[in-house]
Amino acid sequence: MMKFRFRRQGTDPQREKIKQELFAFNKTVEHGFPHQPSALAFDPKLQLMAIGTKSGAIKIYGAPGVEFTGLHKDTTAVTQIHFLPGQGRLLSLLDDNTIHLWELVVGPHREVGGAKKEGGVCLKHVDNYSLPGRPGIESCSATHVTVLLLLKSCDLLCVGTEGGGVYFVELPRLELRESQTLLQDQVTQSLPDEYRCGKSLGPVESLQEHPQQPGKILIGYSRGLVVLWDLGTRHADQLFLGKQQLESLVWERSGSLFVSSHNDGGYAVWPVTSGNACTHQPASSTIPYGPFPCKAINKILWRTSQTGSPVLLYSGGMPRASYGDRHCLTIQQDKEHVTLDFTSRVIDFFTIHNMEPDREFDDPSALVVLLEEELVVIDLQTPGWPTLPTPYLAPLHSSAITCSCHISSVPPKLWERLINAGKAQRSRQHTHMSWPICGGKNLAPPPKQQELLLTGHEDGTVRFWDASGVALTPLYKLGTANVFHTDCDEPPDPSNDPDMQQEEEWPPFRKVGCFDPYSDDPRLGIQKISLCKYSSKLVVAGTAGQVIVLALNDELSDHSVDVSVVDLLQDREGFTWKGHDRLEARLKPAPFPPGFQPQVLVQCLPPASVTAVALHTEWNLIAFGTSHGFGLFDYHRRNTVLARCTLHPNDSLAMEGPLSRVKSLKKSLRQSFRRIRKSRVSGKKRAITTPTSKVQEANAALAEQEEVAPVQRRIEPRSADDSLSGVVRCLCFADTFLRDGTHHGPTLWAGTNSGSVYAYALEVPGVGSGRACERGGANEGGTCVEAVLGKEIQLMHRAPVVSISILDGRGKPLPDPYEASQDLAIAPDMTNAHSVLIASEEQLKVFSLPKVSAKTKFKLTAHEGCRVRKVALVLFHSAAQEDYSEHTLVCLTNLGDMHLFTIPALRPQVRYDCIRKEDISGIASCVFTKNGQGFYLISPSEYERFSLSAKVLTEPLCSPGCKVNHLRSADCSLSGRTEASPCTLSSPILETPLDSPLSCADLTLDTTGEITVEDVRDFLTTVDEAENNLRNMKEEEGRSAGILIN
Question: How close are the terminal C-alpha atoms of the chain, in Å?
Fold first, then answer.
């Protein structure tokens, strides 16, 4: 009966309207480098670049902020892309032998958050085509497409096949022009008898149109034959009888010669003369890295230059025995010869050069190389051919990403200092060339605030990215390896400088690119990051228990780093660390470049991976946790304030470490069976000699008698003996009420894997209105920070604690350090009672402070069958009312869906499907912003950006720089992200309707019928205070119904 009284019937139309103005789910843009790229194209007229991937995606890039994305219906690899220059159209060839036509069009108006928005330009799939099989041939391999050539007139597509035939398809209708079909037999008839020898010419490897005579094309066959074919007369003008297996062809600008590259690592120059019908030998043939056997030159470009000799660019050709495993691209001009040495495979490359027909020379200005793991752009106008920094498409995974952190509303001063530090790092490159892929126009308004995305990496670096707009631009890179002695401590050799290569070795290698997947030491990996944007203090914590406090400095500094060791085991017996050793700190002074420079190194013992950190710069405190316990350190006074061990006697796995291989299968099986046995007992054997043990016994008895409600799942309590139960999952600093309801002061909260929450009252000299200040007096400067255990909470089901947040008297989150003191945020309400919001993997619960009595909760696992993975408190602004906003709890579950709740009432608002439940790494990598956006990894090199806010969206808003057609609303989605389909195009930007299961208002808020009581131990109250608290609790029980429903 009690529960039925608080069931809300029906929906509130006004509330539904507000929810639509606050919440809307959109996947907006993908940041980073496309995963597994497979094709590359460039439109010289529109200055746009396209990249195709093995998953069937096509991404078009122009100036920073100009992006369009399309997705083929089938997840088949894109093998080739060709722009129709200046038209905003492109052709794609898939691995399944289909040719697809795409077009940039203007999408229809759309509605987001109750407001109508103009449609953006999107990439629409128009049509597709497959070559018909040849009659009488069962296998379709003869018509398998090997190469495409789009004629300059853009009305005809030449299609080379594996069977040696060349077919011609009319554009844009994609219809086969059968009268023009050129089969291999027709070419063979005109060959000299001695060249035929009964052998097949092989597949068509290359098609190139004559640069000066439209309608004439070079056809290169795998066997080595090259034919200059006239489409008008359907006759071979000239035959070039090559004898080496052909890889690629390229015309010289005037059309007087062409260059062929071959399988033996050589290239040949062939003159084109009108009087000679058959050429037996090239004018010259060179194997640049011979005489020993070399790998094939896969592609070659010949660009004429006004300054002298032509620029020759080719990929491959390395000596097989010594450098056959290198991924290289060579640039040659006169005596200049550089072999660019990459760390991943070369997919394709092109040059940006003069395309006007009246110009005599190509004069290439830039080389763009698409690699398997990154994009590299070379400045060909500057001596030394330096690399250009990329404003987008930077490889996020240059070293594997291990953690991330988002900072919103970055102060202008900090932003400027970070940019200057980044410029100092890039000053060696000596190039002033602007980004050459500059097509389209970014129509998005400038960002209202600057946003930072920080990524921690396996090699011990932290990278700072400009996440304010569509283009994720690298700003600054921080390295932490120089704090320790590593295997790479030798002074750098200046000859290894990528822009000052002077070695005499052959080939003349030069390391290019920043993708480096190999870490010098896996212990350097960054696990946690915390940045205070107001004081410019940064804390990074790593895999070997290292916690480094860094401060921003604009000048080069040569200093030593203070080292403090914190033993989290506290001399506990019976535990022996079997994992990796700690990193050896560098004790001598070392030079640190401008930027964030290390001040203090705190080394946890045992050196286990750090699982949680918290930074409070106003109090000069850092808190850190591992699988063994947590510590508190005063980095101003350089002393340890607290070290607390959270290990259970059976936490043997916690002593092995993530890099240890000593896990026993027998031990795992034994623990699994032990868990099964304990789950059947329902916890009656626990006998804890605490004042609350009688309450627990009553709860256990009632739990056995209670019938579980139909909408809930029964959740069995977890065993206290589970391995890794002592892992510290979250840490939180707060100025709140812990001792009593009248004195507030600094506190530290810690949550563990076993559902334990520890609350410490901190006495920070000169801070707080409680007893710490009363005892400060004149000796404030000499006193140290003290920590006193105030509360210890044990959640009933022992579910891991994911997040702890303190809410002020108005139910709003407390501001960050310095925000209130510097009037950067509204001061928290200290007149009314505070509360603590504890999110475990199974439920969300709000407790009142300082008594820690339950106010309200939502049992997510019982209702939805999912577990909480990530939690954030987000401020949502209304899209319709400028002055209306709500603080909301956002929760990501192990099923990949987002649940939004009001605080502190924990009323469910909406639910969105965001990440596939199979994408475990995506769920684990998700990070939220404070304004309702988020990021998660969709591949090792790409972040998907999404928005839960109807008002705040960061999405592409751009035009391609050419006339585009308008599209019917039924045919397209927004933001340039479309999926090919013969009927409709489904957009990945979806808005989940508000009538999802959790948005329904007819929902039982299971708060009044709660029979489980957490084990709360209060270490600060006296006997009198305990009696008063007990009396107050009884009084609250009498009026609890009115409190709980609000």
Answer: 19
Cα torsion 107, 109, 110, 115: sign: positive
Q: How far apart are CA 77 and CA 467, in angstroms?
A: 30
What distance in Å separates the CA atoms of residue 614 and residue 622, rounded to the nearest whole number?
6
For residue 449, the SS3 value is coil
Tokens of 757: 């929450």
Among all chains, which residue has been given the structure tokens 């001598």? 588
In a domain, 573, yes or no: no
The verdict on residue 881 lying in a domain is yes
Calpha distance 147→139 (Å, rounded): 19
Residue type, 90: L
Q: What are phi and psi of 1041, to 5 degrees?
A: -60, -45
| Contact by Cβ (8 Å): 983, 464 | no
d(CA 540, CA 407): 15
**Preceding omega of 956 cis (within 30 degrees of 0):** no
The reply to whether 789 falls in a domain is: yes
pLDDT value at 1016 more than 70 = yes
Which domain, by its residues, includes 754?
A: 732-764+785-929
* Partners of 757 in beta bridges: 751, 793
Q: Is 334 exposed, middle or buried (0-12, 13-18, 19+ CB in 10 A)?
A: exposed
pLDDT of residue 1042: 32
Total number of domains constituting the chain: 1
Burial group, residue 91, by CB count within 10 angstroms (0-12, 13-18, 19+)? buried
- Number of other residues whose CB lies within 10 A of the CB of residue 277: 12
CATH number, domain at 845? Answer: 2.40.128.630
Cβ burial, residue 285 (10 Å; 0-12/13-18/19+): middle
Query: How many helices and strands (H and E) does the chain possess?
Result: 13, 67
Quickly list H helices, 662-758: 665-679, 693-705
Q: Please provide the average confidence, as pLDDT, over all residues in the chain.
A: 84
Task: Tell me which DSSP letter residue 554 carries.
Answer: S
Q: Is residue 863 part of a domain?
A: yes
Beta bridge partners of 872: 890
Distance CA 127, CA 793 (A): 63
Query: Percentage of the chain surpassing pLDDT 70?
Result: 80
**Strand 744-752 to strand 756-763: parallel, antiparallel, or no bridges (unpaired)?**
antiparallel
CA distances from 275 to 242, 272, 279, 593 (A): 19, 9, 11, 66
Strand partners, 746: 735
- Cβ neighbors of 450 (< 8 A, separation 6 or more) are 409, 410, 412, 415, 466, 468
Res. 135: pLDDT tops 80 = no
- Answer for the pair 294, 262: CB distance below 8 angstroms, yes or no: no
Question: Is there a contact between 366 and 351 (Cβ–Cβ < 8 Å)?
Answer: yes
Neighbours of 286 (CB within 10 A): 13
Supply the pTM of this predicted model.
0.86
Q: pLDDT tens across 568-608, in order?
A: 998 787 788 889 999 999 989 999 999 999 999 999 999 99
Strand partners, 100: 92, 128
At 475, the amino acid letter reads L
- Return all residues near 1035 (Cβ < 8 A) that are at least 6 apart: none
Half-sphere exposure of 58 (CA within 13 A, CB side): 36
Q: Lay out the sheet containing 629-634: strands in order across.
A: 612-616, 621-625, 629-634, 639-645
| Residues 931 and 408: beta-carbon distance below 8 Å | yes
The neighbour count for residue 36, using CB atoms within 10 Å, is 15
Burial class (CB in 10 A: 0-12, 13-18, 19+), 488: exposed
| 670: number of Cβ within 10 Å | 11
Sheet with 885-893: strands ordered across: 868-877, 885-893, 897-902, 908-913
**776, 763 Cβ separation under 8 angstroms:** no
pLDDT tens per residue across span 382-409 = 999 999 999 999 999 999 999 999 999 9
Residue located via tokens 């059947």 = 680
